[in-house]
Design brief:
- The structure is a single chain.
- The protein is built from no helices and eleven strands.
- 0% of the residues lie in helices and 53% in strands.
- Strand 9 (91-100) and strand 10 form a beta hairpin.
- By secondary structure, it is an all-beta fold.
- The radius of gyration is 14 Å and the shape is elongated.
- 29% of the residues are buried.
């Protein structure tokens, strides 16, 4: 069972910055995809940024140029640096990872979420 533990959320003023961290108890190098999603009040969960095993890093259009996703394979940790935050970035941010198990099946794993609140 993969456990993902987020940290770094909080309250920040518009224009400010936060860095989220997600620590995994399994090698993130072996993941098929790892990244971040968010759910704003009254809205569906949406992709923020992901790092695929193969291919390019993917960002939501709404965060391009402001957010940066990165990973440290030695620490099994993925980060989300969020700059120029806007009130509309207010949401619960979830770490996500997908692994292909020995059985061949793909399994999705989610962290518990961390609240990010941006005040205007």
């Amino acid at each position: 069972q993969v456990q993902l533990v987020e940290s770094g959320g909080g309250l920040v003023q518009a224009g400010g910055s936060l860095r989220l961290s997600c620590a995994a108890n399994r090698s993130i190098f072996s993941s098929k995809v790892i990244g971040w999603y968010r759910r704003a009040p009254g809205k569906q969960r949406e992709l923020v940024a992901t790092i695929p095993k193969e291919g390019n890093i993917n960002y939501a259009d709404s965060v391009k140029g402001r957010f940066t996703i990165s990973s440290d394979n030695a620490k099994n940790t993925v980060y989300l640096q969020m700059n120029s935050l806007k009130p509309e970035d207010t949401a619960v941010y979830y770490c996500y990872a997908q692994y292909r198990e020995y059985s061949g099946y793909l399994n999705d794993y989610w962290g518990q979420g961390t609240q990010v609140t941006v005040s205007s």
